[in-house]
Structures are given as structure tokens and as C-alpha cells.
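Limitations
The C-alpha cells in this dataset are predictions for the assembled complex, not deposited experimental models. Users should treat interface geometry with appropriate caution, especially where small molecules or nucleic acid strands are included. An illustrative entry is reproduced here so readers can see what is and is not provided.
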Amino acid sequence: MTPAASIRDVAAVAGVSVGTVSNVLNRPEVVSAGTRSKVLAAIEELGFVRNESARQLRAGASRTIGVVVLDVANPFFTDVARGAEDTANAAGLAVILCNSDDQAAKEDSYLDLLEQQRVQGILITPVDAGSARLESVRGRGTPIVLLDQHARSTAQCSVAVDDLLGGELAMQHLLERGHERAAFVGGPLSLRQVSDRLDGARAAIAASGRQADRLHVIETAALNVASGRQAGEQIAGRAPRSRPTAVFCANDLLALGVLQEMTRRGIRVPRDVAIVGYDDIEFAAAAAVPLSSVRQPRHQLGRTAAEMVIEEASDNGTHEHRQVVFEPELVIRESSDAARVRRTARKA
Amino acid sequence: MTPAASIRDVAAVAGVSVGTVSNVLNRPEVVSAGTRSKVLAAIEELGFVRNESARQLRAGASRTIGVVVLDVANPFFTDVARGAEDTANAAGLAVILCNSDDQAAKEDSYLDLLEQQRVQGILITPVDAGSARLESVRGRGTPIVLLDQHARSTAQCSVAVDDLLGGELAMQHLLERGHERAAFVGGPLSLRQVSDRLDGARAAIAASGRQADRLHVIETAALNVASGRQAGEQIAGRAPRSRPTAVFCANDLLALGVLQEMTRRGIRVPRDVAIVGYDDIEFAAAAAVPLSSVRQPRHQLGRTAAEMVIEEASDNGTHEHRQVVFEPELVIRESSDAARVRRTARKA
DNA sequence: CCGGGTGTTTGACACGTTTCAAGGGACCTG
DNA sequence: CAGGTCCCTTGAAACGTGTCAAACACCCGG
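Predicted assembly:
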């Protein structure tokens, strides 16, 4: 394979200087029509493709932003990523999507990668928000926006949804339905989102005058369907009279796992156990028992975060860090609403 | 913000030449222990981060591969992408994941991007496999492996699953269950996967001695849940006696959409209408009525494709194009199996 | 014929790396 | 002490692009 044609080869074929070729590419209006078409013809003939590395090297910065999420297999994150992608593309930037898989080591290696690529900025849902690693990246000049996680300090941007409120809404709903024995399924608790949702649930219990520590917490290793099934086993394994009658899961994948396990064991949802999930992914509504869930503005989360990181990257010195917080919304479906089940059944 | 430290700054601080710093970075064994630690200290002090653009420029090629899929929101593709990522990471390569969204224009612009980045190779599920665009990219020297689509010619690599067989398995199953009026839901038919699955279904019908053209084809605009719902409306809208009793969908998202619409209209699955999907995504088993589906080795598809593209990229001149074809497997669940439904119900 | 536009093109340099031939010590051998 | 060997370090060149001051060509008015 012959090495790719460079701007110099184009110049030679077109019989002009390299500067002129560069001008045709970047400021076509300054070059005369005749020369321009000669150059374009040469480009066509040679199949010339710009070398992005060289452009970046020269420009000092790339035209990409990095997005680091906890789990690309989780539809919540792909929706967020698409939101970010839309905004980035509109600004002429490409997105490098990275999957940390809940592992600090993978997160670190992707941060290395992104920094080495000199990305304009990074959107990240960190494994550990307090990590010094993130601070040092910011310190070296790469803007970072926390995604789906409220920044503790006002010294950085973040875009989040109020997880405390979300947890509260979910638990409040279950309490109103008369559930006295509830469980929380989620983990690892070191994830801010998880602990906030748990705290919200506890707050709702406390607000109702009950003892918040009566909430049974099942910590999972990850936020996926398999972990949900394991948690489901634990729940199903208990004697019916000590078994929780309601389960609030830290995300929908867990909830689907729990639901599957209940169904497999012949435990009826919502009659024996009510379930509420979190995120309201597209598949929640299509589940065996349509899943009640706390909805987050996924797409907008991504869009807003991308806007903020782009703004910070093109900073003229006046950038002010903001912490945006959206409000979640509870969507009630059959999995937590026995009345709705009867209604649907009658209709059929 | 001060400009990022370069290898030259490190050299100055450490009191050595740039060549030595480069050696510490790339062949630490050739530099003496003393110098090495001086350099490492300087790197630490300055917070030096390698500039990937410069490395690439010098090396002439990047250390990334591109993966272009039709829809990142489809769990099938994220699983394939993760397979590719695993293999690529193990080989020290990063993955740029791109989403063509079924649109030739987006596909083209991502191909431009990837080519400009000088990626080592591209895995792609093309919108239009015959497109000259792909040929020209290959012609310029970027290896391309067709993903989830069998190459027509032997002049390029591909990794696919036998979609004809998959379609056959699905339809054969429905015929065995006694369904005489069947529909196929999928589209656009210009996608090879879709048309192959349809052809397979027709082949099964013909093989059973029936008229293949009795299969009612509903072409959808896309392969997502929303299109599935629309198709579901069409099906539900027909009078019960002319309505198909079985629906084979070109993927699981469509099947979930059809299922949702049936449920909403009070049409029972599988009693009134049986449904079979395709891909066996994780959510198929968790659906309102667990979905029968044709399973594909998603993860392995991605892994194998990545292996092949890496092999071709590091070609010593002896690369032989291969067309790998995996076999799909039918997974039967309640959505197409009334007997199973009764069994489950009795158990509960 | 000159001075001064205007519009277009040129050519050298810089960006941060890696590579490689060549240089410089230190040490050993004859 | 000359010559050789080994180990380490150096410095320049090259990768492909964008930028910018300078050069050039042309035309107009005087």
C-alpha cells in the first residue's frame, strides 16, 4: 500500500504551493477560482484525506470530547451519550465514548487516553467522585463536567438529577400504597447515585414518622440485571411473613433482574412484592410487569453537559462553573400498583 | 492556563536531551537507572502528558479502530461493540464507537472522521453494503471488516451470523405450531440483515409445501420499538379473522413494540398472536411476555471482527480475507408457545 | 513611467514526537 | 599507550498541517 497522499503531493500535482492547498481547504474564499479547481481536481485524483493528527498537533487541541460512563450496556447511559453526541456534533466535535465498567482502573486508563488525545473536555460519571485523579486532570487544563452526579464543590460544573428527591418520590409512593416492609436494592454504595437514592428513600420513611433504619438494604456488586437476579434470590429466599412487600431498586436493570427472579419463583408482582425501578429506560414499560420507575431527562442530561463542557473549553476567561440539577419524575405502572393491575385485567 | 508541558520541557528540567526522555518513555531498559529516575521526577513535577497527536503523526498511524453501528441504543450493538472493545484493548488499541443511525449521511461523515484519524481499521454494519464509499476507503488502505453482514465478494473480511438460517428457524417453529397466517415485520428492506431474515422465513414456508408469498410483509422505517408499535397498530387494526396469528420480527426491539401494542389493545400473546423476535437481547427474556428469539453470539461477533481487522492491519502481505459465519440458535419462550404459557400458569 | 492599491500565492517555520547515526566515556586487552 | 568494546546519550531530521509575513502580479490614476 502506498503511503497516504499528503498536502505536499496535492500541491505537486496541482502545481501550486502547500500553503495554497491549505488555503483551499480552510479558507477557500481567498484563493482564485481557477487555482481552487486545479487543487480540488488534484485532491480528487490522489484520494487525499486530511491527517487529523497533524492538524491537531498544529492546532494544539483536538476536536473531540470524551464521555466516560459506568456501563454502555445500560440504555440509560446510551441515551445520555446520544444527547451529548447531538450537541457535540452540532458544534463540529466528535465524541469518544468510553466505558469504565465501574472499575477505577479502566476509568483511569481511559482518562489517560483522553488526556493524551488532548480532548477539549470530558463528561464523566465517575466511579469515585472524590478521586484525586480527576482533580489532577482538571488541574492540567482539561475541563471536566460531572455527569449524573452533583458536584460537591462549586469549583466545577456538574449536571445531575436530584437523586435524593427521586429516592424520596419512590419510597413515598410505596408507603402510600401501605407497604411497611420495604427493601432497597442497589450498589456499590460508593456510587453517589446509589447512596443518594437510598438516603432519599430513608428521608421519605423518616418523614412519614417511621424508623428509617427499618429499610432493609441489599447492596449489590453492580447495577445490572445479573446483580438484580441475585438480589431477587435473597428476597425470595426469605419466609413470606418476613419478606419485604416492596422493593425499590437503584436502577431499572436491577429491577428487571429482581422481577425476573420473582416471576421464576412464582412470587407475584405487585401482589406479593411491589417493585419500583429508576431511570425509566425504554424497556421498563415493556417488562413482564410494566415497571414503575423514576424518570430522568436522559437526553437532556447529555445535551446540557456537553453544552457546558464546550462552553468551558472555549473559555475567554469568564467561565462560571454551574451545577445544574434536574427534577426526576415518578412514573407509576403495574409493578407497584395493584389497583392498576385489576383495572387492566378487567379490560382484557 | 499554561500550555501543556512537552517532552522538551521535561528534558530541560531533567537536564538531558529530548531523545533521552523519549527513550525513558519507550525503551526504559536502554537508559541508566540514574538518568531514568531524574527524568521520571521531571515528568512528575511538570505533570507531563504525552501528546498522542504527535506520536501518531510521527508513527503514521493511530492506535485506534473504528466501530460503526446502526443504532447504539440497540443492546445488540452495544454487546457487539463491547466484544470488539475487549479484543482491541487487549491489543493496546482504543475503540471509537460511531452511530450511523441508519443514515447514509451520518455513516459517511463518520467514515470521513475515522479515515482522517488514520484508524487502523474499521468494523462496520453498513447502511448500504454495496456503497462505493466503503470501497474507496478500503482502496486507500484502511482495512474494513463487515460486521453482522456476509460479504458478497471474497475480497474482504466479514463476520456474520447466518440470517437466512435464522429466519428459517423462526418461521419453521411458527409453522410447526400450526400458524397458517403469518406476518413479517422489519425494515428498511434495504438492510441486508432484514431481507435475509425475510428470505429465510419464505424459504421455510416454501419448504413446508406452502405458498411463500402468503407471508404478509410489513416494512418498517426503522428497527426500533416505536416502529414496532406502529406495525403492531396495523396488525391489531385488522379484523380478527384476517389478522395474522403469528408475527416474526426482524429484531427484538420491533418485537417488543409489537408486543406492547398487542397488550395495549387486549390482544393476547401468544394465544391470539404469537411473536418471535431476533437477537435475543437481554431484555427479551424480561419482556411482558418473555420473547422467543433467534440468538446470535453477539459478544463473539465483535471479538472476532476485531481480531480480523487487527490481523489485516498488521498485515505482512500474507493476509487472506475470510468470511466467518456463525450459526444462530432459536430460543423458545412464552411469546410463541401456548403450551409453555399453560405450564407456567399452572405452576403459579 | 511611477506610486500605491488590491488580490493572490509563496515559502519557511512551528507544533511534539520518535528514530537513528554518530558521539563520548569508561573500561578492558594486548 | 593504542585500539577495541560496551553502554549510554546526543542532536538532527522527519512526520503533515496551519499560519503569516513577504513577495508577486496586476491595474488604476496621475
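Some entries come with short summary sentences. For this one: Chain B touches chain A through 53 residues (CB under 8 Å).
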